Amino acid sequence: MTKRGLFILFEGADRVGKSTQVQSLTNHISNSRNLPTKSLRFPDRTTPIGQILNQYLQNSTNMDDRALHLLFSSNRWEAKDSILELLNSGTNIVVDRYSYSGVAYTAAKGIDVDWCYSCESGLPEPDIVFYLSMSTEDATKRGDYGGERYEKRPSWKVINANRTVEEVSNEINQIFDFEFESLQKKPIGTL
Ligand code: T5A
Ligand code: NA
Question: 21 CA distance to ligand 2 centroid (A)?
Answer without folding.
Answer: 10
